[in-house]
Amino acid sequence: MSKLIDKIWTTILYIISAFVVTLLLILIGYILYKGVGSLSPSFLFGDPKIGEAGGGIGPQLFNSFYMLVISLAISIPLSIGAGIYLAEYAKEGMFLNIVRTSIETMASLPSIVVGLFGFLIFVKMTNWGFTLLSGALAITIINLPGLTRVCENAIRASSKGVKEASLGLGATRFQTIKRVVIPAAIPEIITGVILAAGRIFGEAAALLYTAGMSAPSLDFTANITSKASPFNLMRPAETLAVYIWKVNSEGMIPDATKIANGSSAVLIIMVLLFNVLARLIGKKVYKMYSGS
Question: pTM for the full model?
Fold first, then answer.
């Protein structure tokens, strides 16, 4: 009887898993079916044409990647540092309880609330205005709690015996963390980074109030202090997700549906490519550190 019950529940779990995978494939397939026909070099690398048919998503696509790089450059060191502290150095007490409560509270904040906070602090109080840096800091606030917990769990899961062996051989605690703990935790940390990157690509609400909804033509020959320079952190930076929302809500482009479908397809493809590349890179880094 127990074997029969086990088989029934195993079958149910397989059916649920197959349903989730099928639902995901249908969703991705529908978006790609609707949008792939719009993809072309002029669409991917051209500038938008407000009020006219056609146009491209070049500035928005670049802004999404640049926002990804800047946000991760801020989030990853902070998250790994916080994870190391919580897993290796923190002692039970009031301060640790306050830190954990703060992380849990930040993780539950809606992105629109973070966007309004970023608008008040990074846009108004600093007088930066709508800038790429403001958007990157807002995204960092969203991603930091989840990425910190992933790093903490990954570091805790590192073999305790290996850490003790490293310390027993005369390595300092810092050397053990650097040479033993972090390399062992890299695959899980890479997974957390992948999730954070996906959040950056798909986030729109927080960026509406911080990075802005304008994407001027980018001049790669311009001085970095110029607003036209793509690498200037203090310029407005409309991302692809924000652009999809804008073309569907404002109705200023005749073929808005076609552009939104194409942009959605690009967004899905970029997220899939980043996930695959991140996993491949994570495996190579792990092999390099572990010597396997």
Answer: 0.83
